[in-house]
Amino acid sequence: ESFRQQIVFLVQEKLDDRKKTAILLVEAQQALDKNDLQVARAAVMQIPASALTDSEVLAIRNDLDRAVDVRVKKLMATGDAQYRADNVLQAVRTWTEALSLAPDNRYLRDRVERANKVLARLEELKRQQHKPQSRTLSVTVQPTRVRAIRTSPQP
Questions:
Q1: Which of 46, 80, 98, 149 is most exposed, with minimal Cβ within 10 Å?
Q2: Whole-number Å distance between alpha carbons of 79 and 72
Q3: Cα-Cα-Cα-Cα dihedral of 40, 98, 70, 85, to 10°?
Q4: Where are the alpha helices (DSSP H) in the chain?
């Protein structure tokens, strides 16, 4: 009887996996139809391992991969244009959005790192500009008198 219970359990587990897969496939397809790639990816990632070779699962994964590829390329081009137009902060935001879809994309990672360095340098320059300028005191000593002259710093 224990063997029979194991068989019943395995059959039930297989049915549960199929039911879960069917629900997740519908969620993924609906998300793809709305172009919500994050939700579609989350649904696909929850599909049980036992179903990963099913033709429906493979088809939805291919659709998702193509949609992600198209979106990432578009975001990369948009970010590049923003960067060239000196809109560095917006470029970082755009590339970061693309990175959320393609976290292993080294090109995007390098772009974000480089742009963040540019932003940090710009902030440093702004801080230096707003720092109060110190005045120097120049003293000239002549044998008969001492004279002090205030000067502004030379650029």
A1: 149
A2: 10
A3: 150
A4: 2-33, 37-45, 55-84, 88-101, 106-130
